[in-house]
TrEMBL record:
Signal peptide: 1-19
Catalytic activity: 3-O-[beta-D-GlcA-(1->3)-beta-D-Gal-(1->3)-beta-D-Gal-(1->4)-beta-D-2-O-P-Xyl]-L-seryl-[protein] + H2O = 3-O-(beta-D-GlcA-(1->3)-beta-D-Gal-(1->3)-beta-D-Gal-(1->4)-beta-D-Xyl)-L-seryl-[protein] + phosphate
Biological process according to GO: chondroitin sulfate proteoglycan biosynthetic process; glycosaminoglycan biosynthetic process
Function of the molecule: Responsible for the 2-O-dephosphorylation of xylose in the glycosaminoglycan-protein linkage region of proteoglycans thereby regulating the amount of mature glycosaminoglycan (GAG) chains. Sulfated glycosaminoglycans (GAGs), including heparan sulfate and chondroitin sulfate, are synthesized on the so-called common GAG-protein linkage region (GlcUAbeta1-3Galbeta1-3Galbeta1-4Xylbeta1-O-Ser) of core proteins, which is formed by the stepwise addition of monosaccharide residues by the respective specific glycosyltransferases.
Protein name as annotated: 2-phosphoxylose phosphatase 1
Gene name tied to this protein: ACPL2
Length: 464
């Protein structure tokens, strides 16, 4: 993982924002808070529960909803990996004991879990792009390793895959029954948690798939920028954003007191505790319903967790207002969005290759894309978050193609910056593909306020 990604992991591990993740089909336009189900005031515990995304009843979703005269042409899925063991440990505390083996009769349960393990065991000779072939295909340690996918994480993506199967395969027949490797495009970063999450979703989507038809490509960058990762201006925006975060933290005396109290409990300097990123481990305690750690000096408490979580939500609010992250996001998300519209345009031409694309990624992949699209109110990517681009053809006007964008099952198409105005002037249920193409090719650079008219120029010229 590159330095930029590592910095981002330190900066953006916490779910933040004020949008509602799940709405009924009757309120498909709403991503604003729902006064009926949202807490009356910002509640850090409520936000943390949403972030955990513990599997429960099947969620209602808006994927695949379209008038009968529209035909689904292609689907592009971006996921964050599922629930994982922490990447950081709180110094001088007992190691979290979480079992990363997969046990069919243990919660969280999924009817395909046992079959998934059996199928993964048959894939040891599968052909993946290097270095993915050296990674395990499913988690299997009695004591989880750092960053390892948990059973919860596997179940989250088995559910995602099954939901997409019911909609895209059973209802819309996106893939032919004799689908081949050419119909799929699969890409993941080189972490076991992303490869395993992608395989879990794929198994839910295509149960007992033929291993010979599956090929995961390796993406070295968490931004999925492929050969277009060198972008000095993007890094400048990130540095300015990190400076803003630092100054906001200095203003928060309650946060500093909280870190001081926690540092005394574990008997280390406050600076060292902060560098250990304790919220990552605390979120794992919270999501797995395990008490926060104790030492001879006392216990880290829920009140400590609430203070840090509240600050993260406030930080996200200021982040939207200051717009420094937006500059980073526009340049960070451009390569993958450009690749996506290129794939859509090939589908429009009638090519049947890569009509189902799956990118198994991280929070630091999805967050810039959400921001670049103008979805400022979308919550920070929870575990197993999914962002989906659907391409549709109007059978009554075959030359017309439209897109829908869905985040965790909510249709957010008309909340994107490139389609907000369209809704005011048209009653069509989707956004013209041209709007998305124009946005990626031109408007993203105009939004930077720079004189650049393409990605290379924008990456090498001062903006704002």
């Amino acid at each position: 993982m590159d330095i930029l990604t590592a910095l981002l992991l330190l900066v953006h591990l916490i779910p933040v924002s004020t949008a509602k993740n799940e709405v009924s089909s009757k309120s498909r336009k709403r991503i604003m808070p729902d006064p009926v189900t949202e807490p009356p005031v910002m509640d850090p515990v409520y936000e943390a529960r949403l972030y955990c995304n513990i599997p429960s009843v099947a969620e209602r979703s808006m994927e695949g909803h379209a008038p009968h005269h529209f035909k689904l042409v292609s689907v592009h899925v971006f996921i964050r990996h599922g629930d994982r063991y922490p990447l950081y440990a709180i110094p001088k505390t007992k190691r979290l004991e979480i079992d990363c083996t997969l046990v069919a009769n243990r919660k969280p349960y999924h009817p395909k879990l046992e079959a998934f393990v059996s199928h993964m065991a048959k894939g040891s000779g599968a052909s993946f792009e290097s270095p993915l072939h050296s990674l395990p295909l499913y988690p299997s340690h009695l004591l989880c390793e750092m960053g390892e996918l948990t059973q919860t994480g596997v179940v989250q993506h088995l559910q995602n895959g099954q939901l997409l199967r019911d909609i895209y395969l059973k209802k819309h027949k996106l893939l032919p029954t004799d689908w081949s490797a050419d119909h799929l495009y699969l890409e993941t970063t080189g972490k076991s948690r992303t490869l395993q999450s992608g395989l879990a979703l794929l198994y839910g989507f295509l149960p007992d798939f033929d291993w010979k038809k599956v090929y995961f490509r390796h993406q070295p960058s968490a931004l999925f920028c492929s050969g277009n990762c060198y972008c000095p201006m993007r890094n400048q925006y990130l540095e300015k954003e990190q400076r803003r975060q630092y100054l906001l933290r200095l203003k928060n005396s309650q946060l500093e007191r909280t870190y001081g109290e926690m540092a005394k409990i574990v008997d280390i300097p406050t600076k060292q505790l902060r560098a250990a990123n304790p919220i990552d481990s605390m979120l794992c305690h919270f999501c797995h319903n395990i008490s926060f750690p104790c030492t001879g000096n006392g216990c880290i408490a829920m009140e400590h967790f609430k203070v840090i979580k509240t600050h993260q939500i406030e930080d996200e609010r200021e982040r939207r207002e200051k717009k420094l992250y937006l500059g980073y996001a526009l340049l960070g998300a451009h390569p993958i969005l450009n690749q996506t519209i290129s794939r859509m345009q090939r589908a429009v031409e009638g090519r049947k290759e890569e009509i189902f694309a799956l990118y198994s990624a991280h929070d630091v992949t999805l967050s810039p894309i959400l921001s670049a699209l103008g979805l400022a109110e979308a919550r920070f990517p929870r575990f197993a978050a999914r962002l989906i681009f659907e391409l549709w053809q109007d059978r009554e006007k075959p030359s017309e193609h439209s897109v829908r964008i869905l985040y965790n099952g909510v249709d957010v198409t008309f909340h994107t910056s490139f389609c907000q105005e369209h809704r005011k002037h048209s009653h069509k249920p989707m956004c013209p593909l041209e709007n998305l193409v124009h946005f990626v090719k031109k408007d993203m650079f105009a939004a930077l306020g720079s004189s650049g008219t393409n990605y290379y120029e924008a990456c090498h010229k001062e903006g704002f």
